[in-house]
Amino acid sequence: MLSNKVTYILAVLLTSSTVFGASDLKSAFQDGKISGQVRYYYMSEDNQKGLIDYYGSALGGHIKYETSQYNGFKIGAAIYTSNFINTNVNSTNTEPAAGNKNSRYVIGLMDGTNPDNHNITNVGELYLNYKYSKTNLTLGRMKLKTPFMNPEDGRMIPTLEQGLWFTSKDVNNLTLQAGYINAFWPRSTSGFKSVEDSIGYGYGQGLQPLAQKTKGNYSGNISSNGLYIASVKYTATKNIKLQAWNYYAQNLFNLAYVEGTYRKKFNDYKFISGIQYINEKAVGDDGNADPKKAYMRHGEKTQVYGLKAGAGYKSSLVTFAYNSTSDSGRFMFPREWGKEPFYTFQKRERSEGSGGCHAWLVTLQQNFKEFNINGLSAKLGYGKYYKQDVKNFVLNKYALPSYAQGNIDIFYKFSGKLKGLKAEYLFARKYAIGNTYNNNVNFVFSKVDINIHNFILNYTF
């Protein structure tokens, strides 16, 4: 239904003689551009000894066509696909000691809603864009990048959006953005869902914020007419940047985000710093008047604070970051829509669903060009993430114990005849530092005491 509406609107606009004449339309298509990406991805999740491990390799990517502009208008379309080459992920290969849970990570290369679905192909982008001066307006299916709603492109197919998006840079040093989203194609799923149906689609619902252990039950039970977003970015000086965002999910929550960053370079030395603040509260009936089917607890609210500072020399940079979440409620934002921009974020885990917690992270970034190894770079990270007790369901949605995590992320960008090819190897290790109650499998499996290997090849054209 949603895709039919968008297709109809685009068809009407494109065939209107007031927008395109026939000859001009032909020219716009002839002068268009084809782009895309081919992606190979191998991932394995090695759980604690005695528990099941998972592996998988997939091949896919996307191909996109975009017309040239005519009278400010252009259209674009992209098809995305992901296909398992080899995997042990299926509906029967589960961990009985953990209530027959399936893969948490490898399954994300394909379809988190159906472990037996090993092939996905769908239209991810289909839009009409109008540009006047430095202002853009886009209608349809698109790929957007904002602090909280973003591609979270760490598997095969990114998260994509459907709606209306406005961007303006007509005022010097100022960027204005606003939009209305009525559907998402969440990463690791097979296609688009309305805003209300996308929440809990392909991702675990965790536990309800109740004293007694009760599984989340909001998937398919909440109502919302969409997500409304507005933002302003301001470059105060060459070194200072400020931004403010507001995300209003009708009948669900309102989240406000502000951030300020400072960067300064002194010859071969550089310094960076940043501060971030999040204020979130439930609105309406939290998706459903029945608290056992709602997305958030009635009246739930929380605040998140973040700080970071870093210093570097030439192509090296060391950064320290800290985040703290208040104990008045959990930080909540649908994982189906994107990853959070916390300064302490590391690939392969998130802070969403937690309240009354804090974390710190140290990272080292190194580009090896000064050592005459062009194309090679790396990022090392180590952090500790202190959660509420796994049995505190009011503030720990996923019963995730406090943990430490170390990441090694290595990139190599090819040149010459292989220009456009980029390789990445990511190793993530998480281990528990909080109480797992005698190594209870439900608090460990796919959460902590786990190694995750990732090897990715991207060819972009």
Your description of this structure?
The chain has 461 residues and is mainly beta. The protein has one domain: Porin (Beta Barrel). 7% of the residues lie in helices and 46% in strands. The protein is built from four helices and 19 strands. The chain has an 18-stranded antiparallel β-barrel. It is globular and about 65 Å long. About 2% of the residues have low confidence.
Strand content: over 45%
Indicate the low-confidence ranges by residue numbers.
Answer: 13-22
- Indicate the overall shape: globular
Mean pLDDT, to the nearest integer, reads 95
Write down the Rg. Answer: 23 Å
User: What's the end-to-end separation, in Å?
Assistant: 33 Å
Tally of extended strands? 19
Could you tell me the CATH topology label.
Porin
Using the 3D structure, state the CATH architecture.
Answer: Beta Barrel
Percent range of helical residues: under 10%
Question: What name goes with the CATH superfamily?
Answer: Porin
Q: How many H/I helical runs?
A: 4
Count up the domains: 1
Major sheet, described briefly? 18 strands, antiparallel, barrel
Summing up helix and strand content along with how strands pair, one would put the structural category as mainly beta
CATH classification class: Mainly Beta
Order of helix and strand elements from N to C terminus: HHEEEEEEEEHEEEEEEEEEEHE
